[in-house]
Structure formats: C-alpha cells, structure tokens
Amino acid sequence: MQYVELACRGTLGLVFLVALGGKVTGWRAFVASVPGLAPGLPAVPVAAGVAGAEGCAIVLFALRPAAGYLLAGALLAAFAAAVALAVRRGDRASCRCFGRASVPLGLTQIVRNLLLTALACAGLMAPAAAWEPAGAALALVVAALLAAVFVFFDDLADLLIERNI
C-alpha cells in the first residue's frame, strides 16, 4: 500500500506543479478568469491565494504528506464547487486551470476535480512506509502517467465524448 500512497502523492504533486506553472506563466489570463469562478471577489488576491495554496500543497507533499493531502483535497473540492456554481450561473468562461485556455467550464472540470479529490482521500488513507527502489520507481512512473491524464483531461474528454453543439 505504500506504493499507492506514493503514486497518489506523486500524481497530485505533479498536477499541482503543472497547474501552478501554467498560472504563473499565464498570470494575466488566469487573473482575468477569476471573476467567472469567484464573482464579487477581488481577482488578484484570489488568484494569488490559489497559486499560493497550490505551491503550499506541493511543499507539504514533500514535508508533511498528510497535510498536503488535506490541503489538496480541500482545494480540489473547492475548485469543483466553484466550477459547478459557475456552470449553474450560466458562466461559460474558459477554464484556465493549467494556465492555457481550454473548453468552456463544464462537467469535465467538475469530474476531473472530484477524481483528484478522491485521489487525495485515497492517498491520505493509504499507509506510508519504506519503499523498495524498484517499487518506488514504478509508483512514480504511474504517477507521471496519471498526472498527464489529469492535465490533459479536457483534451481527452473532447476526443472521447461527442458533444452536441
């Protein structure tokens, strides 16, 4: 089970790292997308808070994994709720979750964030223990593959789901 924990931690850490990198490199576009997800709140402080929290989760995964899982789970649940509320309001802004524009906000982002929240819960419940090098390497390869799936979740959904426009 320690390899499940390592794979969960690696996946979430990589997803947050890519998300943070995308937000920092596309800062203006990310700040401009905030009012669609958090109407009435000041965009720059909210954007800075999100980026800061994602950075903290990355650091916590390395230093205090349980705290990292708790922070990541809370962030991801909040992201899912924010997207769901935006969709309910009829806001069809583009998701800037990873810095680049993607499909308009919708069920895809909600599902992705809920799956990542479940991954944070699984990682929190999986016992951490000493790793054998080969097992750790395999767990990290799995983490990289899963992270790629989540980072490109919108693109994969577009390929696999026929949209009625």
Explain the overall architecture:
This protein has 165 residues and is mainly α. The protein contains seven helices and no strands. α1 (2-25) packs across α5, α1 packs across α6 and α3 (43-63) runs antiparallel to α4. The longest helix has 25 residues, at 65-89. The termini are far apart. The mean pLDDT is 90.
- Radius of gyration (CA) equals 16 Å
User: How would you describe the oligomerization state of the chains in this entry?
Assistant: single chain
What is the total tally of β strands?
0
Shape: globular
pLDDT below 50 for ≥5 consecutive residues: which ranges? none
Count of helical segments?
7
> What average pLDDT do the residues reach?
90
What is the distance, rounded to the nearest whole angstrom, between the alpha carbons of the first and last residues? Answer: 44 Å
What structural class is derived from the secondary structure elements? mainly alpha
